[in-house]
């Protein structure tokens, strides 16, 4: 309820820049942008593409009626290029009838190539623009970012709204990380964080596929975590349940659906991090060669699921320390907040890749379904 209230207030705030436009005629004198995609072009500069709704083609709009979801013409895509973001915007403004209005943007899309090169100048430009909404979702796509604006999902007329609604519904279910542009600004400014996570999507002709989170070290993307790996990050970093997990057992597998999580950090002077996580949930599917009919069998299931989580956690921490060399679990923020003496004594960037990290899970299955098996 509290989250919905906050979303409602933020949605209301998005319209504040329009308060000065007292009639529809003045409002129409702005080109409304709902999404922006940024690519690195061949000359080394930037190509900025914008997605603009076409009111005549949207159901309920004036003039010609809109067709089914994703019908052609519901949005228009325009591009401008230049050595800097400002010059690319200037070219876009020359192509537009009216000045662009960025206050309704829902998503900000970067190509993976650009994200890996660094996006600090772009974020600096966006931070200085008063029209840019902080409550928009930053996304990295494999391939060209512009191509993501031309995707036509069948369930929405405006593709950007499909992505936004998909992200928000999964956030409410605690299945994905909650990241907005404003939170990215905070992470990059906070000495205890410095590791923003952007949504990582693959775009196809018919829609978008969520493929985990893009991991940044400062302003540069250093890799990505898939949805299974993100379960551990959600448990540790956000105290959120995450998605269901498949645990393998003799004769088959158990699908576990978590719904409650508790987390406890312990940091020693070495320093060493020990993270204890308690998970509650239910068995969604069981194809093992034993039935869950008594406390002994239930305890066996708890241990099988816990081992699976711990194995994934070991893989995630190993990737974070050896491959990404980035504290995706954000242990540094906990040390910065609660262990200032350790924080002042160590250099976190050089120490983290060698720091002992142990993640222990205690799983408690509360429900096994209508039929105990």
UniProtKB/TrEMBL annotation:
<dbReference type="InterPro" id="IPR038501">
    <property type="entry name" value="Spore_GerAC_C_sf"/>
</dbReference>
<dbReference type="Pfam" id="PF05504">
    <property type="entry name" value="Spore_GerAC"/>
</dbReference>
<protein>
    <submittedName>
        <fullName>Spore germination protein KC</fullName>
    </submittedName>
</protein>
<dbReference type="GO" id="GO:0016020">
    <property type="term" value="C:membrane"/>
</dbReference>
<dbReference type="InterPro" id="IPR046953">
    <property type="entry name" value="Spore_GerAC-like_C"/>
</dbReference>
<dbReference type="GO" id="GO:0009847">
    <property type="term" value="P:spore germination"/>
</dbReference>
<comment type="similarity">
    <text>Belongs to the GerABKC lipoprotein family.</text>
</comment>
<feature type="domain" description="Spore germination GerAC-like C-terminal">
    <location>
        <begin position="211"/>
        <end position="369"/>
    </location>
</feature>
<keyword id="KW-0732">Signal</keyword>
<dbReference type="Pfam" id="PF25198">
    <property type="entry name" value="Spore_GerAC_N"/>
</dbReference>
<keyword id="KW-0309">Germination</keyword>
<keyword id="KW-0564">Palmitate</keyword>
<dbReference type="InterPro" id="IPR008844">
    <property type="entry name" value="Spore_GerAC-like"/>
</dbReference>
<feature type="domain" description="Spore germination protein N-terminal">
    <location>
        <begin position="24"/>
        <end position="198"/>
    </location>
</feature>
<dbReference type="InterPro" id="IPR057336">
    <property type="entry name" value="GerAC_N"/>
</dbReference>
<keyword id="KW-0449">Lipoprotein</keyword>
<keyword id="KW-0472">Membrane</keyword>
């Amino acid at each position: 309820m509290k989250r919905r209230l906050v979303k409602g207030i933020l949605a209301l705030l998005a319209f504040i820049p329009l308060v000065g436009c007292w009639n529809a005629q003045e409002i129409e004198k702005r080109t409304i942008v709902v999404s922006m995609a940024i690519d690195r072009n061949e000359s080394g500069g930037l190509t900025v593409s914008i997605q603009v709704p076409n009111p005549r083609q949207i159901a309920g709009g004036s003039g010609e009626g809109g067709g089914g979801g994703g019908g052609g013409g519901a949005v228009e895509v325009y591009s401008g290029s230049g050595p800097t973001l400002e010059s690319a915007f200037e070219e876009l403004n020359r192509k537009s009838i009216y000045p662009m209005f960025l206050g309704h943007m829902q998503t900000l899309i970067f190509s993976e190539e650009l994200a890996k090169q660094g996006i600090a100048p772009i974020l600096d430009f966006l931070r200085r623009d008063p029209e840019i909404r902080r409550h928009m979702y930053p996304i990295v796509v494999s391939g060209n970012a512009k191509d993501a604006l031309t995707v036509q999902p069948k369930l929405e007329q405006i593709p950007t709204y499909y992505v936004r609604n998909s992200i928000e519904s999964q956030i409410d279910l605690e299945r994905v990380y909650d990241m907005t542009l404003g939170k990215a600004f905070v992470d990059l400014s906070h000495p205890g964080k410095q590791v923003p996570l952007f949504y990582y999507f693959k775009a196809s002709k018919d829609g978008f596929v969520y493929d985990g989170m893009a991991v940044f070290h400062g302003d540069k993307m250093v890799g990505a975590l898939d949805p299974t790996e993100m379960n551990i990050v959600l448990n540790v970093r956000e105290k959120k349940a995450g998605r269901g997990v498949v645990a393998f057992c003799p004769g088959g597998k158990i699908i576990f659906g978590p719904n409650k999580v508790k987390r406890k950090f312990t940091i020693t002077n070495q320093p060493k991090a020990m993270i204890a996580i308690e998970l509650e949930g239910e068995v969604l599917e069981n194809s093992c060669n034993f039935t869950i009919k008594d406390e002994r069998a239930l305890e066996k299931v708890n241990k099988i699921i816990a081992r699976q989580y711990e194995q994934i956690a070991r893989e995630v921490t190993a990737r974070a320390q050896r491959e990404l060399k980035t504290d995706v679990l954000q242990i540094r923020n906990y040390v910065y907040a609660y262990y200032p003496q350790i924080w002042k004594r160590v250099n976190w960037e050089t120490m983290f890749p060698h720091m002992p990290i142990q993640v222990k899970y205690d799983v408690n299955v509360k429900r096994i379904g209508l039929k105990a098996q």
